[in-house]
Design goal:
Length: 349
């Protein structure tokens, strides 16, 4: 069985480039599952006909979710698509204008700073430019890979609605079938580990999705009130990058700063302060309340983990690295205390 499990994991690793739609589907499943359970618990015939109640609850939640997407899409998608089209078409010009503004500020700063400070800043700038060039080269390579996998990605996106429906509807049957494959003397431990995995992943996915929605909405609102162009697109970018732990807020602020430098350079310091304020709001208010203890991993370790995961698995690797590490940590602690009953839990005493 271990050989079969290893073979499955190896095949999943080889196909990681086309699994991104299913990562999205799994996140949606964790988001919708609590609603399905609440609707199912409220149905009067739940005890007498559990299969029918499960199917009806999934169908109701599914239809409401699709209706919400349609309404939100009708209100926001036309504006978003227009902004995306203009953003892409004007991005080269904005990037050039931002560079010119930054160079003008650099020349002005040189006249006021000591030579040794200027030398340090120029060295740091050279390192940044070199790293950006390396990142651009890697991004170009990744783009070629993604284009080569476009058909598989589209096929995955098309199958996600049907796949998600069956995941929500047949979760109990799938679990029962899985446990039937496990030897009886190991089912208790397997059930406990499955519960740990489900708890960690569900807490993490729901927390990250809520954080992304909150940060994206606040970013779009604040930039719009400040009169920054493409506020909706910049909010979407900030919300998506928020899914990347620790580094996400920094990556999400870069497009907003570039757009401001190109269009409203006098507001650049206010936009930088706004992004810092949103990040502080996230770290001090949203993360403790929304995420809680979903992932108890030190930020320094997370940063190293993200760099390694990006090299191995690209964007998908960055998205799954932290929850996977959290699952491994919790499973290790369970097995450690399961096999060593006399062990003192971390932090006890």
């Amino acid at each position: 069985m271990l050989v079969a499990l290893g073979a499955v994991l190896w095949l999943l690793f080889l196909a990681r480039g086309v699994l991104f739609p299913f990562v999205i589907g799994l996140a949606l499943a964790y988001l919708l599952l609590p609603l399905v359970r609440r609707v199912e618990a409220a149905l009067p015939f739940r005890e007498s006909n559990p299969r029918r109640s499960r199917l009806l609850s999934v169908a109701l939640v599914y239809l409401l979710f699709i209706l919400a997407l349609v309404v939100a899409g009708a209100m926001l998608l036309p504006l978003l698509f227009r902004q995306i089209s203009r953003f892409i078409s004007t991005l080269p010009d904005m990037w050039g204008q931002a560079q010119r503004v930054f160079q003008a500020w650099t020349i002005e700063a040189r006249a006021q700073l000591p030579p040794e400070v200027i030398a340090e800043l120029e060295g740091a700038a050279a390192n940044i430019v070199r790293n950006l060039a390396i990142a651009a080269e890697e991004a170009a390579v990744q783009t070629v890979v993604v284009v080569s996998q476009t058909f598989s990605l589209l096929l995955g996106l098309i199958t996600i609605p049907v796949w998600l429906f069956y995941v929500l509807k047949d979760r109990a049957d799938a679990a029962a079938f899985f446990y039937s494959l496990v030897p009886p003397n190991a089912r208790t431990d397997v059930a406990a580990i499955a519960s740990i995995v489900d708890r960690v992943l569900s807490n993490y996915v729901r927390a990250q999705l809520l954080l992304g929605l909150a940060v994206g909405s606040v970013t779009a609102l604040v930039l719009s009130l400040m009169g920054i162009p493409f506020a909706l697109v910049l909010g979407v970018i900030a919300g998506i990058t928020e899914l990347i732990p620790v580094l996400g807020p920094i990556l999400g602020s870069i497009p907003g700063i570039v757009v401001t430098l190109a269009n409203e350079p006098d507001k650049t310091h206010w936009v930088v302060l706004a992004f810092i304020g949103i990040q502080q709001l996230e770290n001090n208010l949203l993360v403790p309340r929304i995420q809680g203890e979903a992932v108890e991993i030190h930020p320094a370790f997370i940063m190293v983990l993200l760099v390694v995961a990006s090299e191995v698995g690209g964007l998908v690797g960055m998205l799954v690295a932290v929850p996977l590490a959290a699952v491994c940590k919790e499973v290790f602690l369970y097995l450690y205390h399961r096999w060593e009953p006399s062990a003192v839990p971390p932090g006890a005493g």
